[in-house]
Amino acid sequence: MKSYTGALFNSGPVERLLDLAARCQESSGASPLDDDLRRFIRIVENSNAAHWACPISTVAALLEFVGDVVDGDSAPFVPAEFQKRLLRVADGVGGGEYLRTLAGIIRILAQGPVADYAELPMAAWEARVLFPRLGGFGANWIYDGEYSSIEESVRAAVDSEHPYCPEFLSPLAAEAQTALVLFPEQESFRVNISEQIPWASIASVRELLGLINDHMRHEH
């Protein structure tokens, strides 16, 4: 299959949803598929950019389309690895039927209100999607123990990027502010952010944000 056609199966929403389905299957019921589908819907519906690029109705249509392709005359051209993963997740159900069923479930779930974080806390995969820079900051500047404080870590990170730090700092600051606004209470912050990004607490993220803002005010 040509690479630009194979991308339909190897990247994008179809692949993401198949990955989520596999993860839920491997959890032996600890992570219900409906919950992760609602999280997927929440990501798209809460992001104007994601909704603009690929709304949930289009995601469901893609699933149905791929299901029809898998069952149709073009099935031999579907990437073999995708076929294997699909059959493994479908677990005895036909691959095309599974994808069409998944599309129907998503349509039903999307008709309801977007799940609140108090009702459906953030999963680790969701935090990686929504807060990649907060997570990456810990991996790159905190967890190895080279710096003894958040302040030292932030200053080292800033120094490594200056004078081009606006491109690095602006999305990091945006994620920090978003986390603080979404989860202003200690317990909600812990459940949704700290459990997924261990270095992040309300205090540490506030300190990070303050240091970034201070640098941008005085150095740019």
Mean pLDDT: 93
What's the assembly state of these chains? Answer: single chain
Rounded to an integer in angstroms, the radius of gyration calculated over CA atoms is 21 Å
Largest sheet: none
Task: Give me some keywords for this one.
single chain; 220 residues; mainly alpha; elongated
What is the element layout, followed by pairings?
Blueprint lengths: L2 H8 L2 H14 L6 H13 L2 H6 L2 H16 L8 H11 L4 H16 L13 H7 L1 H10 L8 H12 L3 H18 L3 H9 L7 H18 L1
Description:
There is one protein chain. With 220 residues, the chain is mostly helical. The chain folds into 2 domains: 3-110; 124-219, no CATH class. The protein contains 13 helices and no strands. The chain has helices at 3-10, 13-26, 33-45, 48-53, 56-71, 80-90, 95-110, 124-130, 132-141, 150-161, 165-182, 186-194, 202-219. The N and C termini lie far apart (49 Å). 29% of the residues are buried.
